[in-house]
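seq as requested:
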Amino acid sequence: MAVMNPNATAGIRRKADHEVDNAIKARKPNDRSAAKSPTKRQLDIKTVLAPPFTSSSETSDVANDVSVDLPFPTHQPSSKDPFQLVKSSTLSPFRKRVLLALSQVPKSRFTTYAAISSYLGSSPRAVGNALRNNPFAPTVPCHRVVAADKALGGFGGHWGMEGKFAQHKVQLLREEGVVVDVGKGKVVGEVWKGFK
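struct tokens:
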């Protein structure tokens, strides 16, 4: 897989942002398609990434791992089985393993990056990186993963209670019945570790 330097990634992000801005500006004020304006996820990021790479497989792998700030939810909740969504995806084998493990966490429960990594024989950081751009949120519930000390952890590529999407993560957890102590920035209760 091709290696990108941070400056190249920043340029890609700027280009994607620019394309979103242009698409929004191109709308007519009374255009009924306004509700269908593109988000950053809807842009074909593979075409944004394609020029520096030589093979489509490299472009595809990198496109899945590019970090882009997204409005939430990133995926419309689906009646489709989360396991099938993940299994039929083009994600890397490791990301599939992480998302399949995550799909086991029941509603109204939470787990930790460390618990998933222990189950997979990996590291908590690798699990966090795999969850950073969950293309199936909230159907595959990355909001149910918190830090080992029960601190809120990451969400949408941002970390902790100060993170850009922290309040959205808190809202999702509370809607499912998880108690969140916002003052401490931690969830309350027992960590779910029933992976099979």
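Residues 6-16, 31-76 have pLDDT under 50 and may be disordered.
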